[in-house]
Amino acid sequence: MYPVTYKYSSVQNNLISNEIIAAPHLFMKLTIFHRLVLGYLSIFLLVAALSTYTIYQLYRLNNITHLILHVDTAAINDVKKIRDSLLSQVRSENKYLLTRDKSFYKQFQVARQEFIRHLSSISYDANSDQEALINRIKELHSGYLFLFEKEAQYLNEGKDYSGLSYKDTKQEYVNGTIDHLKELNRHVQSNIDRKMRALEATGKRATEMALVMTVTTLLVGLFISLVITQSINKPLSLLKKRTREIAQKGVFDGYLNLSSPPEVKDLASSFNFMCAKLKKLDQMKADFFSHISHDLRTPLTSIREGTTLLLEGVGGTITDKQKRLLTIIVEESNRLIRSVNSLLDLSKMEAGIMPEDFEKTNIAPLINQVIFEIEPIVEGKNIEVAGKIADTLPKVNVSRERILQVLRNLLGNAVKFTPERGTIGVNAYASDHEIIVSVVDTGPGIPEKKLFSIFDKFYQASTKDRKETGGTGLGLCIAKNIINAHGGKIWAETKLNQGSIFTFTLPV
Q1: How far is CA 12 from its chain centroid?
Q2: Does residue 310 sit in the same domain as residue 421?
């Protein structure tokens, strides 16, 4: 028996587990529309349940209030009227026995009918205890009526009887009736008090339950809203993050596998397909630049060397005009070769095959070397270069040539954009296990909306006076790749018409 029972339990547990696991998958298959409908329906049902409970409690309160106002209060009034009608009967029968006036007898009958009518009214909604009192009142009243009718008969027939004995007995019936009416009144008042306490308790309980249900409804509604919002917002946030990575960093790797509504999942699939296409196109572009740059460098070098030989007179004597033309050809060939070399460097960096010779180096001499290199240019533009380098900088593990390339690009840009009689500052100091180097210029600055684009490939800055500044637009992009390869960071800060600050860090 036991193995069978154990096997059945295992199957049952597996079924329960499958149902629990299937529930999230079922939820993930729901579209955004169906999720919203399901959420709104759940909240609506909670609100409907709260409203139904509130209406039910209000009905109970109204029912108890109705009983107090229209039953118990009416019963108290009826008890008072019964007592009044009884006393009216006593007065009328006393007057009739004294005067034998038929009008008092009629008044007695009227009071008697009032007594019976009000007593019947109480009997309609009486409980068992009240019914016993009412029956006793009826018996006492019947006894009282019997004695009065007997006296009236003796008077009408002119017979003698013991009036005093009848009077005492009738008084006992009347007093007994009044005592029972008082007891009946206490019963009715007790019912009112009990219903008032029930009314208070029901109101308190309804208030507490309404408060609990309201808080529960709000919390459940908030939870449902958060779950639905999160299930939609989270995949969209991931999609937004990946889009930003592609836009700002050009990172096409990383497959988006989102547990999300079908609409967002389809969007993610299209996004993945787009990333794959963009990655393929970017690779084709990189390969194109690499091949075209490699193919261009050899003929350009040949043109430069041949032109240099002509300038040196290897091909014979040349005129001054020919020398000027050949000099221009050499300069433009050198510019094209530098552009081709930049393209090749960038292609190698993006492919991850750029050879780097890292060694522990003091960065201060590298900064001073680049400042010395640009002295002829800054003197020509009457620009002041101020270096503020800390005396004791820790050595960093870098490639000397690559860091020199970064410094040349940053200082070259600063010289290019700084107007005549401007200033350029180079600062270097150590902070929190890293070296921070910044290049400050007094140029026109960079518009804030373009601040994040300046490190993109082929981006060229512009000023108010001229649209283009020359160059390939690869300098800052190459600088960013070099600093990233060293584990550092590079960024720019600017104030329009006040200058720019380019800063990079290198880990110690």
Answers
A1: 38
A2: no
**Residue 386: other Cβ atoms inside 10 A:** 11
Residue range 308-315: mean pLDDT, rounded: 77
Same domain for 208 and 304? no
- Same structural domain, 299 and 277: yes
- If asked whether residues 84 and 187 sit together in one domain, one would say yes
Note the pLDDT tens digit of each residue in 91-102: 998 898 888 888
The CATH number linked to 177 is 1.20.120.1730
| Alpha carbon separation from 44 to 154, 271, 455 (Å, rounded) | 81, 36, 53
On whether residue 236 sits in a domain, the answer given is no
Strand order of the β-sheet with 499-507 is 384-389, 423-430, 434-441, 499-507, 490-495
Which is higher by pLDDT, 252 or 223?
Answer: 223
Residue 439 CA to residue 386 CA, distance in Å, equals 10
How far apart are the C-alpha atoms of 148 and 155, rounded to whole Å?
A: 11
DSSP 69: I
Band of residue 496 on the pLDDT scale cut at 50, 70, 90: confident
In whole numbers, what is the pLDDT of the chain averaged over residues? 80
The beta-strand segments (E) located in 310-422 are 358-361, 384-389, 396-399
Distance CA 35, CA 42 (A): 11
Give dist(CA 118, CA 188) in Å, integer.
14
Are 403 and 501 part of one and the same domain? yes
Span 38-84, pLDDT tens digits: 878 888 888 888 788 888 878 888 887 877 777 778 888 888 999 99
Q: Do 379 and 426 fall into the same domain?
A: yes
Alpha-carbon distance of 12 to 146, in angstroms, equals 82
Residue type, 312: E
Q: What is the mean pLDDT of residues 322-328?
A: 82
∠ CA 167-170-176, nearest 5°, is: 140
**DSSP-assigned beta bridge partners for residue 495:** 499
What pLDDT was estimated at residue 309?
Answer: 78
Residue 153 lies in domain: 50-213
| Burial of 366 from C-beta contacts in 10 A (0-12 / 13-18 / 19+) | buried
What's the predicted TM-score (pTM) here?
A: 0.46
Residues 450-481 pLDDT 10s: 777 788 776 665 544 444 445 567 788 888 98
Instruction: State the Cα angle at 345 between 344 and 350, rounded to 5°.
Output: 100
CB 424 within 8 A of CB 440: yes
Whether residues 207 and 282 share a domain: the answer is no
Question: Does residue 283 share a domain with residue 175?
Answer: no
What is the number of domains present in the chain?
4
Rounded to whole angstroms, what are the CA distances from 24 to 155, 234, 326, 415?
A: 99, 16, 76, 61
